[in-house]
Design goal:
single chain, about 375 residues, alpha/beta, DNA polymerase, domain 1, TIM Barrel, 2 domains, 10-stranded mixed beta sheet, two-stranded antiparallel sheet, about 35% helix, elongated, binds S-adenosyl-L-homocysteine, binds iron/sulfur cluster
Length: about 375
């Protein structure tokens, strides 16, 4: 369980049974917490090393701590890991993990076995407000934001899944359910913990944040000058079509969105990735590929074409292979950097969000 239960009433005094959660602490806060327990502050560094670097899943494993401290921590503290409900591993090694959160909500994390090192795809919200017409994550609507600690727990537990196969996580993508820029505070807090050498210590160059295009937040992110890769879900080259596919486009149309992305590149020196899901008969024609290339011409960017992962509840089909190839080749002829995203985990199917939706339905 994550943060523990309700308060207990005792002679008019409410005694909280909540345990402190290690993943919620900055190194400084943990040091203070330990000093308050009468322990030396340097224990914080040791504990954080166990949790973030050595894959410890309990205080028992922290063998350089005195047994008395380990026992005390077990009674008063928890690391903050999530309860794993299922882990499905596909033939190609992709693992899809479903977690149960402390309030009974489900959330998904995917471990991707790339040749250059494993990657974790983490969720930032339960559900989503954006209502894109192809997306399973948005089907239940918005339920709640995840905390920075819940995001980090996904990373560490995905790391555990990689470690079970003698692999290490080399990169992260914020591309699971939810809109990370709609959960700004927790997402930034999480990114701070990712890059902190005293915690995960992963360069933000190995992190990709995917957004449906919240323009003011892209500008705020640019101002932070994090070197992460910004991936923007485009899915259409004009406002009419994009607004049909992604309602958020009516609020933040393409021209201001692309301008904000240009500002992002200017501020961070990082080229933006544009994601484009190909949906049969909707956004996959040669004319639309030409329109997209005209819009992106001269921009330092990369286009990632994605074949739709069909969601049973939604009446949309993936573009046939020949349409995907033609779309890609049309962009290439117009000198746009483009790749087709390799499909991983096809046999465990489930577009992001489906596993969770099925689980919540069963519940
Ligand atoms: N909300 C953010 C990040 C989460 S969605 C965003 O929209 O970018 C992450 C990626 O998964 C996006 O590129 C989204 O377009 C893609 N995605 C969502 N549903 C999909 C589906 N059914 N098939 C293929 N890709 C999907
Ligand atoms: Fe939300 Fe992204 Fe899904 Fe759109 S694609 S509904 S923004 S999670």
């Amino acid at each position: 369980m994550q943060a523990g239960g309700a308060g207990q009433i005792n002679k008019g005094v409410i005694i909280s049974l909540r345990k402190a959660v290690i993943l919620k602490f900055t190194p400084k806060e943990l040091m203070q917490f330990l000093v308050n327990l009468g322990e030396p502050g340097y224990r914080a560094k040791q504990i954080l090393e166990w949790v973030y670097q050595k894959g410890a899943t309990s205080f028992k494993e922290m063998t350089n701590l005195p047994i008395s401290l380990r026992e005390r921590l077990e009674q008063t503290t928890e690391i903050g890991f999530l309860e794993k409900i299922t882990e499905q591993v596909s033939a190609d090694g992709t693992a899809k993990i479903l977690f149960n959160l402390s309030d009974g909500q489900g959330v998904e994390t995917v471990v991707l076995p790339y040749d250059i090192g494993y990657s974790a795809c983490i969720s930032t919200q339960v559900g989503c407000k954006m209502g894109c017409i192809f997306c399973a994550s948005g089907l239940p609507g918005y339920i709640r934001n995840l905390t920075a600690a819940e995001m980090m727990a996904q990373v560490l537990q995905a790391g555990g899944s990689a470690r079970n196969r003698d692999q290490e996580l080399k990169s992260l993508v914020l591309m699971g359910s939810g809109e990370p820029l709609d959960n700004w505070d927790a997402t930034i807090k999480f990114l701070e913990a990712v890059k902190d050498p005293g915690r995960l210590g992963m360069s933000l160059r190995h992190v990709t944040l995917s957004t449906s295009g919240l323009v003011p937040k892209i500008k705020e992110l640019a101002a932070l000058e994090f070197p992460l890769t910004l991936a923007v879900s485009l899915h259409a080259p004009n406002d009419d079509l994009r607004s049909k596919i992604m309602p958020i486009n009516t609020k933040y149309p393409l021209t201001p969105l692309l301008t904000a992305c240009d500002e992002y590149t200017k501020a961070t020196g990082r080229r933006v990735t544009y994601e484009y899901i190909l949906i049969a008969g909707l956004n996959d024609s040669v004319d639309l590929a030409l329109e997209l290339s005209a819009r992106l011409r001269g921009r330092n960017c990369h286009v990632n074409l994605i074949t739709l992962n069909a969601v049973p509840e939604l009446d949309l089909r993936p573009s046939p292979e020949v349409a995907v190839r033609t779309f890609r080749d049309t962009l290439r002829q117009k000198k746009i950097n483009v790749t087709v995203r390799r499909e991983l985990g096809a046999d465990i199917a489930a577009a992001c969000g489906q596993l969770r939706n099925n689980y919540m339905r069963e519940c």
